[in-house]
Amino acid sequence: MDKHIHVASTLTLVFIFLLCHATTLVSAVDDPWTGLPVPPEPSPGFYKHLQACADVLTRDCGLEIYNYVLGSGHVGPPCCQKLKQMGETCNNDLAFALGRFDKYKKAALIIKTKSARMFSTCH
After folding, report:
1. DSSP string spanning 25-54?
2. Max Cα separation, the chain?
3. Cα-Cα-Cα-Cα dihedral of 48, 49, 50, 53, to 10°?
4. 24 in the Ramachandran plot: left (φ > 0), alpha (ψ -120 to 50) or beta?
5. Per the confidence metrics, is the pTM higher than 0.85?
6. Residue 95: how many other CB atoms lie within 10 Å
């Protein structure tokens, strides 16, 4: 269960998207991904794959991505480099997984769209 909690934390850290109540930047002290229940794994090994993807990112980069996707933050060059290193497949899979959390199901299409835009605009 601990690895699933870590994966959930990482997933939510990486891609939380434009919801009405998330219009301000998230402070590092009050992590928004803490305590979310983990959705069932859609296929065996999927969470392990996501963990390998997320391990490329730093916590600060995850917060930067969070702020961009959920609000109006900016993803800077160092974080873009990490995102590109992680790869497009990982980016898409993390966005898909985040859209499965109850809290973000209504924003699943926005999550997918904004994360794809973020990835494509990173140089």
Report:
1. PPPSSS-TTTTPPPPPPSSTTHHHHHHHHH
2. 37
3. 120
4. beta
5. no
6. 24
